[in-house]
């Protein structure tokens, strides 16, 4: 079963993306490099609660 998660920029702490993940394949918090429109560059985004 896929669950909805929110990704937040690790530099400016803004929540930018909503996505889904499979808890069986990714039990830990996800970390993805994505574009942050507030920082105007690619930064590391981490899953939030």
Task: Tell me the layout of helices and strands.
Elements: E1 2-9, E2 15-22, E3 31-36, E4 41-48
Antiparallel strand pairs: 1-2, 1-4, 3-4
- Spell out the CATH superfamily: Ribosomal protein L33
H-E string: EEEE
Radius of gyration: 11 Å
Strand content: over 45%
Strand order of the largest sheet: 2-1-4-3
For the residues shown, what is the average pLDDT? 94
Which architecture name does CATH use?
A: Single Sheet
Count helical runs. 0
Report the CATH C-level class. Mainly Beta
Low-confidence regions: none
Number of domains: 1
Name the overall outline.
elongated
Q: How many β strands by DSSP?
A: 4
What fold name stands as the CATH topology?
Rubrerythrin, domain 2
Structural class: mainly beta
What characterizes the major β-sheet?
4 strands, antiparallel
């Amino acid at each position: 079963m896929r669950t909805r998660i929110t990704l937040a920029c690790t530099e400016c702490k803004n929540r930018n993306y909503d996505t889904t993940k499979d808890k069986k394949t990714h039990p830990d918090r996800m970390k993805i490099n994505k574009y942050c429109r507030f920082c105007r560059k690619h930064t590391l985004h981490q899953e939030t609660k």
